[in-house]
Amino acid sequence: MPLKKTSAAALAAVGLFALSGCGSVLQSDDVEETIASDLEDAGYSEDEFDVDCSGDIDAEVDEQMTCTVEWEDGAAAESYRIAITEVDEDDVYYDVIPEEFAEQETGEQDAD
């Protein structure tokens, strides 16, 4: 079953994470859990994929991490760029952008 197009559409989203008292770091484990939950909400079983993010990042605007979704059925792995867009006290807002579209997003601001 081809999953790439469906999962990319499911994950091209905005995330929100509330920081705990441990500091101002967005932890990769938390982002992995969010992505896995989004995929499950889109109808995929947790047995169908594995999510791995590159590492924790400071909770600051424009900080980024990369996450990869590996499919258990051998479909091509998918990469996503996680980019923090806003930090409001203990809340961190971020975009989840399929890597194939991330360069278009960051390279093209308003063309109007």
UniProtKB/TrEMBL annotation:
Keyword Signal in annotation: yes
Keywords for this protein: Signal
Signal peptide: 1-27
Domain DUF4333: 13-76
Domain of life the protein comes from: Bacteria
A Pfam family recorded for this sequence: DUF4333
Entries under InterPro entries matching the protein: DUF4333
Protein known as: DUF4333 domain-containing protein
